[in-house]
Amino acid sequence: MVFVFLMFAYILIGLPDNAAPLKIDGTEIHLTETKISDLIDQGFEIYVSNGRHDYPNYNDLLTTGSYSKYQGSGVSVPNGFKSYDSAVTRSTYLLVKKNVVLGCIGVYGDKRKSTELKDCVVTQVCFDSECTAAAKKYGISYNIDGIDLLKKLDENEFTKVFGKKIWLTPSELRDEYLGHYGVQWGAGNNEFFWNHYFMNLDLDSNNDIVNFNFSSNIAAER
User: Fold this and answer.
1) Is 160 helix (H, G, I), strand (E, B) or coil?
2) Calpha distance 100→194 (Å, rounded)
3) How far apart are CA 21 and CA 145, in angstroms?
4) Quick check: helix, strand or coil at residue 184?
5) N or C, which end of the chain has less CB nearby within 10 Å?
């Protein structure tokens, strides 16, 4: 009976389409699975906004008092899913390693109750050209599904890797950037059952990534 139900569900909504993990400095980050405690165990640090809204420059993010290093307790994340600002200098949580700001993250704890930050999962990772410039200087890598995100984007390789998951291409110009890619894992009307994942890249005239937004929607939370 259970088999029949599963087959019926598969016919109606299909199987979940999980996104590839983002690898930063060799550590895999699986959206909606990797916890903050996992990142801390791998040598990352999380800095939390003090809510001053003074929006310092990238080079001043860790020195102006706008952010405090998370010590493993004392930060409660409200219940429910939310989308976070993708701009690193306006973010709630910074992802840091070797005193380098590698980007910003979004988190999710629980649908009904507040959750300590270390027990939350990562739902979003964003970085920009200032983050990648610093990462290159200190030998920190960014990679997804074999694509080196610190190199000029090879569009043929990118298309080969992500194929039909690509829904927006550089031929469809957007804002001031010369190129933009949009990739999606999960489609259709199955948001209640499976998480959905999105990757958006802005490219400059050299095909370098200047903005990267890797995010998710939690099933039944949207």
Assistant:
1) helix
2) 34
3) 7
4) strand
5) N
End-to-end CA, the chain:
31
Of 181, 201, 179, whose CA–CA distance to 129 is shortest?
201
Give the chain's count of helices (H) and strands (E): 4, 15
Q: What is the pLDDT of residues 8-61, one digit of tens each?
A: 444 444 556 789 999 999 999 999 999 999 999 999 999 999 987 778 899 999
What is the helix, strand, coil percentage profile of the chain, to 5? Answer: 20, 35, 45
User: 101 with 125: CB under 8 angstroms?
Assistant: no
CB atoms within 10 A of CB 177: 15
pLDDT over threshold 80, residue 172: no
Residue type present at position 31 = L
Cβ partners under 8 Å of residue 19, min gap 6? 30, 31, 185, 197, 199, 214, 216
- Please name the residues in contact with 125: beta carbons below 8 A apart, sequence gap of 6 or more: 22, 24, 29, 31, 95, 103, 104, 105, 106, 212, 214, 215
pLDDT digits (tens, 9 = 90+) for 112-159: 999 999 999 999 999 999 999 999 999 999 999 999 999 999 999 999
Query: Nearest CA to 203 among 160, 166, 174?
Result: 174
Structure tokens of 44? 């990352």
Taking phi over 0 as left and psi of -120 to 50 as alpha, with beta for the rest, 72 belongs to left
- Entry pTM: 0.88
- DSSP, res 152: P
Sign of the torsion formed by the C-alpha atoms of 165, 191, 201 and 146: negative
Please give the structure tokens belonging to residue 25: 């400095």
